[in-house]
Amino acid sequence: MHMKEILNLSVAKLKRLAALKSKIERLQSQLEAVVTNGSRASVKKAGRKRRKMSAAARRKISLAAKARWAKVRARKSK
């Protein structure tokens, strides 16, 4: 609905539109609650984006971890 059309509506129709909009919003929130089993936390968690780690960064971390474990094993064998 365009702004000019809204301006030409009567007060009663505007009140009815506001009531319907409010009812639609309540129904949408109820529908969302049913879909997510009433858990708001899962909605926030699902929206969170995961960070991408480059192959080079994964390799660096892997090599560092292997070096740390090699030190641990070296100390145990003494």
Description:
The structure is a single chain. The chain has 78 residues and is an all-alpha fold. It has one domain. Helices cover 78% and strands 0% of the residues. The protein has helices at 3-7, 11-35, 40-47, 55-77. The longest helix has 25 residues, at 11-35. The protein is rod-shaped and about 90 Å long. The mean pLDDT is 84.
Number of strands: 0
User: What low-confidence regions span 5 or more consecutive residues with pLDDT below 50?
Assistant: none
**H and E string:** HHHH
Please count the helical segments.
4
Largest sheet: none
How many domains would you count in the coordinates?
1
Question: In terms of structural class, how would the helical and strand content be classed?
Answer: mainly alpha
Overall average pLDDT: 84
Characterize the overall form: rod-shaped
Instruction: Give Rg in angstroms.
Output: 29 Å
How far is the N terminus from the C terminus? Answer: 81 Å
Percent of residues in β-strands: under 5%
Q: Give the proportion of residues in helices.
A: over 70%
The oligomeric state of the chains shown is single chain
